[in-house]
Amino acid sequence: MLRIIDSYYVKSAVEPADYPASAYPEFAFAGRSNVGKSSLINLLTNHHGLAKTSGTPGKTRLLNFFLTRYKIDDNEEAGFLQLTDLPGYGFAEVSQREQEKWRRMVNRYFEQRSQLKALFVLVDIRHRADKKDIMMLDMLRIRKIDHCVIATKADKVPKTKQKKLLADLSKGLGLQDVPIYAVSSLNNTGISQLTDFLQSRL
After folding, report:
1. Lowest mean pLDDT among 66-80, 89-103, 132-146, 149-163
2. For the structural domain made of 2-200, what CATH number should be given?
3. Cα 42–chain centre separation
4. How many helices (H) and strands (E) are present in the chain, helices listed first?
5. pLDDT value, residue 93
6. How are beta strands 79-85 and 63-72 bridged, if at all?
7. Which residue, 24, 201, 19, is CA-closest to 118?
8. Residue 67 exposure: Cα atoms within 13 Å on the Cβ side
9. List of residues 6+ apart from 94 with CB closer than 8 A
């Protein structure tokens, strides 16, 4: 089982020329503003405060890169992988011009980040499938970027209802063979599934 043992913030960037130069395997996190991307990164790395959380939708307007060191099972040799927090999308408070800048920035990232192994698309388990999430998933399918869907805030709904909510989201998002996991940053629900997914893509 993959276990992240160390992590730190590397840099923030907009243009490809400013991306970290390392070629480590990379996994990115995308989703609507305030869906819980930063909280999930902090939980996954067991590093509270690594990714800055904000109560202001759309505050993160940069690509934020984090380097992590991991071990698998009892293997003494550690490996490295990079996590990227993409700016949230779908925020009504931001102008069309700003949203277009977001689209260009993310498209450049997808086009030029060859070490990107997979992308986690985060959605709120309590809400129906959203057209912005569907657009993101369509973009990933067109570009043939491996991905899964993370239904966050699973602690907000009874466990007995999670299976149906996941099925409804899967249907609404048109996931077909794309995996979807219920996750909570408060009680660690689903974290082992995320680390298994990470390990399978290394």
Report:
1. 89-103
2. 3.40.50.300
3. 12
4. 5, 7
5. 62
6. antiparallel
7. 201
8. 11
9. 58, 102
Closest CA to 110 of 146, 82, 81: 146
Spatial separation of the C-alpha atoms in residues 43 and 66, rounded to whole Å:
13
The per-residue pLDDT for range 51-93, each reduced to its tens digit, is 876 554 445 578 999 999 999 988 878 899 999 999 888 765 6
* CA distances in angstroms from 108 to 23, 100, 135, 138, 160, listed in the order given: 17, 12, 16, 16, 41
CA dist., res. 107 & res. 65, Å (int)? 16
| Backbone phi and psi for residue 4, each to the nearest 5 degrees, phi listed first | -80, 125
User: Is residue 113 a contact partner of residue 19, using CB atoms and an 8 Å limit?
Assistant: yes
